[in-house]
Hints:
The chain is α/β, with parallel strands linked by helices.
Amino acid sequence: MTQHAQIAERKYCRPHAPSHRPALQAVQTAGQKLGVQLQLIPVRTSEDVDEAFATMARENVASYLVVAAPLFILHRARIAELALRYRLPGMFGTNEGVEAGGLMRYSADLNDMCRRTAIYIDKILKGARPAELPVEQASKYQLVINLRTAKALGLEVPPTLLARADEVIE
Length: 170
């Protein structure tokens, strides 16, 4: 493992990281509204990935969600491989996870967010005070579906969901 990967695992991939709190709170709120029982399985290092899937299999978890984090991007292929082995459908926070074999992604459009960031930078460089700029939430989201993975898991994706997808990997 490279030094960069080890640093990313130790420094940035903590399950209770402040950057993950809003996402986890949103997922918990949605789960409660839908009557879905959620289980947080912390993954702090690459070694925890295998154990997380073994735990999900032992506890008959129906699906999983991977938040966007450097550790999960780094090990996306391993996560997708384990998901197929344990026959677990899952959602990723990044396109890289779906391209590696994950089932789907529904999250903010990162290209749109970068464009919005550039607009903020332009305003600041032209003299705007950062503290006076409004905080913005993502307003554009993307749905990406990997049909190869769906077929490998024995899942049929409804045509209405496919029609809403921004990208379908076949």
